[in-house]
Amino acid sequence: YKGVNILLQAMQSVPQNLVLIGKGPFLETWKKLSVEMGVSERVHFVGPVESNIEFGAYLHGCDALVLPSINEAEAFGLVLLEAMSCKKAVITTDLKSGVKFVNVHGQTGLEVPRSDSASLANAMNSLRLDDALRFKLGQQAFEHFSKHFLIQHSLQKHLDVYQATARKVAA
């Protein structure tokens, strides 16, 4: 459901390096596919990272994060928040899930139709070629993350709900 095959197809039109972190049951298939598609020189499969520090280094070193999931099994996309906390623009697909709340198209990143490798490539190239847009979306992504996803904000929202409920019960 991660859409890595769509991402590899998109890479045929994106003259940039791609780093894929993690492993899954299709890792060897994806590696073979990258060779078949002629993108293996620019696609780097690093496997699982050993620490949060190493993962953070990858996030800070990237230009943007792409999460090309193809179905709602991608319910939220925690990795998006991790990237946004590092001031990175993100690219996601138009899932009817929490991903849409995390990435606000045109504000925190870009959203493309799912399973559409041409649109994904266009979005990736847009961020690659437009530093100002990439930096602007990255800054706005950080602001969105800070406003909606820091623990103190979540705690305050929960407290507000509890207090409103308590007032209704007491009334």
Q: Spatial order of the strands in the main sheet? A: 3-4-5
**Helical proportion, percent range:** 40-55%
Report the mean per-residue pLDDT as an integer.
94
Question: What is the subunit arrangement here?
Answer: single chain
Question: What portion of the residues fall into strands of 2 or more residues?
Answer: 5-15%
For the record, give the distance between the C-alpha atoms at the N and C termini, rounded to a whole number.
48 Å
Poorly predicted runs are none
Order of helices and strands: HEHEHEHEHEHHH
Q: Characterize the biggest β-sheet.
A: 3 strands, parallel
Report Rg. Answer: 18 Å
Give the total of beta strands: 5
Number of helices: 8
State the secondary-structure class. alpha/beta
- Estimate the global geometry from the Cα principal axes: elongated
Features:
13% strand; 8 helices; elongated; two-stranded parallel ribbon; 171 residues; 3-stranded parallel sheet; alpha/beta
